[in-house]
Design goal:
This protein is of the alpha/beta class and 452 residues long. The protein has four domains: 130 residues, Orthogonal Bundle (N-utilizing Substance Protein B Homolog, Chain A), CATH 1.10.940; 30 residues, no CATH class; 56 residues, Sun protein, domain 3 (Alpha-Beta Plaits, 2-Layer Sandwich), CATH 3.30.70.1170; 209 residues, 3-Layer(aba) Sandwich (Rossmann fold). 48% of the residues lie in helices and 14% in strands. Strands 5, 6, 7, 8, 9, 10, 11 and 12 form an eight-stranded mixed beta sheet that branches. Helix 13 links the parallel strand 5 and strand 6. Helix 1 runs antiparallel to helix 2, helix 1 crosses helix 5 and helix 12 crosses helix 13. The protein is globular, with a radius of gyration of 23 Å.
Length: 452
């Protein structure tokens, strides 16, 4: 998305100040970036929301590249600068490098902003560095190819090294290019209330660009604005759910009348999809242990009108103890590193480290073992992540099957649509792997397990 320069003269300091405050709060590490942007979004004038959104998410998306360029222009130690100065420079650098504003106007606006949050020395530093950057100083990338890719595409080096070793440099570069592109809003249409065709007509009548996907119910929306303002939101015609996140329910294939457990259910998209597939006949137990996230499940359930969904506040690791062999089907979308969805979660790559993979894998196995106890004999469960890392995917399934001989890895039901097999880009024959650079969708892993 390119923001046109005509917006630069209107409230140019206020929107930048809101963006700066968001970056400062995010850097403290208490919440994810989406939380902060959503808090600010509704209070900003409509004409400034797009600018604010791009400034914040764009700065974080390209943080590594911006820091690398700025570091060469600051005479002192760049990373020892106060957070407010560092983020002033980042915000200004992002606008100079990626936004279509007049460069003198950007520099002047950031200098004026610096006067409201610092002293004269702050303004002088911001002015000097951004003027150098505006003159397009040459950037000298590291000689090492992997390090150069890490800088150029703003991904942490430890992750790029892993991907280059696994995918090769060319595929890794394609993956990072995809991650740095702007994601569309993807929703699932509630077929119990409206057809996809009619929903597309409603969007078209409101001037919203909406495209149907490769299977019934998935719709891609561009430049849609606030979700709550979309046509059909209050009527429960849709819920937000990405293309890849809808695939595990196809693999699970729940049927009307079944009792299904959604173990890590918030915000509730998959629970809604399960209920839809079951024609709202049966029971969907939606577990989550965080009260705020549980409220989100309840809000979604009420809005789309599914009576079969029953939100339950509980730790999914204890599901096997509380619900022994109680469910026909189980969906287990576990917490993970989210390396397959960096296009949407632009800040995740800066918050994770390689040690998180081991921490996640321990929790993932605990959840999978709990699910095994809750599944009825003859039942199916789907394990899935939005991770690309084998420690969280294939290795977990291998470990699980080793200690659970009464479970088998299953092929999808023959009545499922062919697109599942067509999307599979895995190489080890364990489950389904979706690689973003090959499928042009969020990365995902899923495996169908059956209990004998």
């Amino acid at each position: 998305m390119r923001i046109e320069s005509r917006f630069c003269s209107s409230s140019k300091i206020s929107v930048r100040k809101e963006a700066l405050n968001t970056l400062l709060t995010w850097e403290k590490g208490k919440e994810n970036l989406d939380y902060f942007t959503s808090q600010k979004f509704e209070f900003l004038p409509k004409e400034l929301r797009g600018i604010y959104f791009e400034m914040v998410r764009g700065t974080v998306r390209h943080l590594g590249f911006l820091d690398y360029k700025l570091k060469s222009l600051v005479e002192s130690d760049y990373f020892s600068l106060p957070s407010v100065i560092r983020n002033l420079l980042r915000l200004g650098a992002y606008q100079l490098e990626f936004m279509n504003f007049p460069k003198p106007s950007i520099v002047n606006s950031m200098v004026e902003l610096s006067k409201t949050v610092g002293h004269s020395g702050t303004s002088a530093l911001v002015n000097g560095v951004l003027r150098k950057l505006a003159s397009k100083p040459e950037i000298f990338l590291p000689e090492n190819q992997t390090e150069a890719l890490s800088v150029l595409y703003s991904h942490p080096l430890w992750l790029v090294e892993r991907w280059v070793k696994r995918f090769g440099a060319e595929q890794t570069e394609a993956l990072m290019k995809w991650n740095n592109s702007i994601a569309s809003l993807e929703v699932r249409v509630n077929s119990l209330r409206i057809t996809t065709e009619n929903f597309l007509k409603i969007c078209d009548s409101k001037g919203i660009k909406a495209l149907s996907g490769p299977f019934e119910g998935i719709v891609f929306l561009e430049d849609a604005g606030a979700v709550e303002k979309l046509p059909g939101y209050s009527e429960g015609f849709f819920w937000v759910q990405s293309f890849s996140a809808q695939l595990p329910v196809f693999l699970l294939h729940p049927r009307p009348g079944e009792k299904v457990l959604d173990m890590c259910a918030a915000p509730g998209g998959k629970s809604c999809q399960i209920a839809e597939f079951m024609q709202d006949e049966g029971e969907v137990l939606a577990l989550d242990k965080v009260p705020d996230r549980m409220r989100k499940i309840e809000e979604n359930r009420r809005r789309v009108g599914f009576r079969s969904i029953h939100p339950v506040l509980a730790d999914a690791r204890e599901a096997g103890e509380h619900f022994p062999e109680a469910f026909d089907s189980i969906l287990l979308d576990v917490p993970c590193s989210s390396t397959g969805s960096l296009r949407r979660k632009v800040d995740v790559k800066w918050k994770k480290s390689i040690s998180d993979l081991e921490r996640h894998s321990i929790l993932q196995l605990e959840l999978l073992n709990s699910a095994a106890l809750s599944l009825k004999p003859g039942g199916n469960m789907v394990y899935c992540t939005c991770s690309l890392e084998m420690e969280e995917n294939e290795s977990i399934i291998e470990q699980f099957l080793t200690v659970h001989p009464n479970f088998i890895l299953k092929e999808p039901d023959s009545c499922l649509p062919n697109f599942l097999n067509e999307l599979n880009t895995g190489t080890r024959g364990i489950g389904f792997t979706i690689l973003p650079q090959k499928v042009h969708a969020d990365g995902f892993f899923m495996a169908l397990l059956g209990k004998n």
